[in-house]
Amino acid sequence: MRSAVFLSSLIICSGVGYYVYQDSLASVDSSPKPEQNTPVAVEVVTSQRCDLDERIDLVGSLEAVDQVQIRSRIIGYLDKLPYDVGDPVEASDIVVELSELTYQERVSRAGQAQKIAIAQREAAIARSNLIQLEVQRFKDLARSGVSTEQQQEDAEARLAVAEAETALEVARVSEATTEILRAEAALDELKIVTPISGFVAERTVEVGDLAKSEEVLLRIVNLKRIRTIVHIVERDYEKIRTGQTAVIGVDSVPDMAFSGTVVARAPVIDPETRTARVMIDIENRGEQLKPGMHARVTIVASHSENAQVVPISALQERNGQQFVFVMEAESVARRRFVTTGIRDGELVEILIGIEPAAAVITLGSRLVQDGSSIHATHAEWNPADSLAVSRPDGEPSGITAGD
């Protein structure tokens, strides 16, 4: 009985298994077939050649290279101020005149004091000579026993006093002479000249005011040489060297670029800001640049002539490796690992990795993989339109396709 039940169960299980197997085969046969590889629509440009500049963009304020603050070395009332703010001046022009009256009186008083000191000196010399004769007379009398030792000592004491008084009067004459020289020098200081040519940028006093040595009376600036000081970050420090060119733009003259030159770079980096000061002298054509203006500065850190370039939109990076996709003749995308150089605006220089005049995928490059089928549309492009800023001289870069 048990054998019959076991046999029946085995037959039933086998039938169920066969049914499941047939059903699975039917499912496999009815599943959809995989679709063929659909080409990806992309845009392709041809790599070209042009001159590139590596540019560092910065901001700064303009200041005059040559400027001077006019102060008076003496105290006096202002008599004449022939120039006002905005007036042009030439080197050695008299820009401030102080009243002479006080210092002429000072010279006169010094002369009178000198005359009195000379008279007192001559009187002291005469007294000293007279006492010298008296001392000699007592010495002669002492040898004959007529004068006493006390008389001789008194005469010598009076002589010492007289000689001291003479020395004092001589010193007073010297002091009076020095005072005359000071007063005469002060007269010369009453007329103050400017050491540079330029324009009066600031005037803080008016005629009649009392000039003091610690006060600035005028500020004069020369606009022919303008400078800006910018701050570069640590990673760009070694890229900056004296003699490099720079392009400067200002809001007041939006359609003009001014040429500058790096003249100095700070030897240290500020530990707080991690930046270093860079000084740039600017050719101020037409004196259109003014101290205090906000300046946009672009320093040309390096230059590459006839570089092979592609749009930066074609460049990709993954796991620290840079690559582009190029189109091969059979409309297949191929990945090319590249070494890049200068980046300028929307352009990137390709040093190694693609052949001249390569067909590089730009639009759609992130949708393809190595070996993908593509449907390419060729686009015309001009690298000059993608440069960061105009060249300082306004001339376009020379551009050629491929080699």
In words, what does this structure look like?
The protein has three helices and 21 strands. The radius of gyration is 48 Å and the shape is elongated. It has helices at 2-30, 101-144, 149-189; strands at 40-46, 48-70, 76-80, 88-89, 94-98, 191-193, 198-203, 210-211, 218-233, 245-250, 253-265, 275-283, 294-311, 316-318, 321-327, 333-337, 339-344, 347-352, 359-361, 374-378, 400-401. The two termini are 95 Å apart. 28% of the residues lie in helices and 38% in strands. The chain has four domains: 41-52 and 304-401, Beta Barrel (conserved putative lor/sdh protein from methanococcus maripaludis s2 fold), CATH 2.40.420; 58-65 and 222-302, Beta Barrel (Elongation Factor Tu (Ef-tu), domain 3); 76-99 and 190-216, OB fold (Dihydrolipoamide Acetyltransferase, E2P) (Beta Barrel); 100-188. It is of the alpha+beta class. β15 and β16 form a beta hairpin. The strands form four sheets. It has a six-stranded antiparallel β-barrel. A four-stranded antiparallel beta sheet has the order 6-5-3-8. It has a three-stranded mixed beta sheet with strand order 19-1-20, with no helix packed on it. α2 packs antiparallel against α3 (149-189). Residues 1-7, 24-36 and 388-403 have low confidence and may be disordered.
